[in-house]
Amino acid sequence: MARQVTGAARRVADAAEVLRDEKFNARRIELAEAALETLGELGFARTSLREIAQNSAFTHGVFHYYFSDKLDLICCCVRHYKAKCVTRYDEVVATATSRDELTEGFLAKLAATLQNEARMHRLWYDLRSQAMFEAAFRKDVLEIDKSLEAMIWRIASRYAEFGGKRPASSPAALYALFDGLFQSALLKHLAGDKTAIPELLDEVRRLLPTVC
Amino acid sequence: MARQVTGAARRVADAAEVLRDEKFNARRIELAEAALETLGELGFARTSLREIAQNSAFTHGVFHYYFSDKLDLICCCVRHYKAKCVTRYDEVVATATSRDELTEGFLAKLAATLQNEARMHRLWYDLRSQAMFEAAFRKDVLEIDKSLEAMIWRIASRYAEFGGKRPASSPAALYALFDGLFQSALLKHLAGDKTAIPELLDEVRRLLPTVC
DNA sequence: CCAGAATCTTGACACTTGTCAAGAACGAAT
DNA sequence: ATTCGTTCTTGACAAGTGTCAAGATTCTGG
User: Fold this and answer.
1) pTM over cut 0.85
2) Domain containing A104: what range?
3) Could you tell me if A92 and A141 lie in one domain?
4) Min Cα separation A157/chain B (Å)
5) Nucleotides of C under 7 A from a protein CB
6) pLDDT tens across A72-111, in order?
7) What is the distance between the alpha carbons of residues A181 and A193, in angstroms, rounded to a whole number?
8) Residue A76, in any domain of the structure
């Protein structure tokens, strides 16, 4: 009987702890999201915790309550960013019923991303570069890279499928190609080059039939 | 006569100034080279002028004598880096007498670069990302990117030439592809992945005949 | 309603940063 | 050898950094 009570008490306590953990985690994500704003604006090198706090509704102390240190915060940011990013094109893949539809959907999304989410994406490239110096970032960054590669592969596979074919290159090569093109277009776009986006679209439109 | 003397004096003065300028510039490059050491080790975000000075034979004051500020120094580093980088594969292109020779020369250089100059290359990716935030870097970075694209294009053109063909894609797409692959391999290599280099070589070996 | 835990604020700390200025060391022309 | 301009060293400054801890506030279970 004592054991049962203990068991029940344990269950209640566990449930409470789970709840607390969830709340704690939700807060962490709120904070990470706020941090992403400033990180996207200033980049990793120029972003301090105080700056993050000032551009948000939180005080700088809260960040230390929820994160063990700055790296911990930024790792959380990276992980959270991943979840948003990795499914960006999946709807297009799911709803397209033809090659053309898939192409146009993909291109439209590509243009919109470049136009509206330039800051988040430059942060991604920044952090991926940071991972080359800071080992703490590597695991998450490599994981995200894999997910993005898989995302591109899903698009390419579907595209090839519509033509009754198979993609002509490996997932790694396809991802390298599109990521490289996107990165270059992003830099030009940020530098004020109005032709960056249309040129990227042209290039991708030309490329798709040749690689898939 | 007075005019002649003035003219001669002017010429002498000019010559002296040119000499001083050259010496000044040579010193700047020495300092930039020293700075590149630390930058390659720590990355842009974690590198301070004092750290640079401590890892070199110079005191931190000298850097402020030769550079107006930190950005000026790093811009000079980037420009200097460019000169070294952009001709890396030209000897291979010049001396190869067949497809195979070009392929093997290119792959060997690729592997050696990844192995021995990982630090300089991660710095390049770092600074290219910084250019997405810091306008002061953009001009130089875009220029270097163009030069690298041209370098890849020379390789691909020569390769295609050996086969009596023309490259199948645009310079931009080819550069994006190889740069993307290299970047990914570099990250994996730095993360301790022993298969990164051989996998890159395999991929490139497979890719070359299909794109050129 | 109240005690204790969780959450948050505030201010301080030790340290690092970029920048600058005063003067020392040096080199070359007179 | 002296002088003057160049080059370099040193030390200081203000501003900004991550981190922490003490206390205020809010929430919650009893």
Assistant:
1) yes
2) 86-211
3) yes
4) 18
5) 6-11, 16-22, 29
6) 999 999 899 888 889 899 999 999 999 999 999 999 999 9
7) 15
8) no
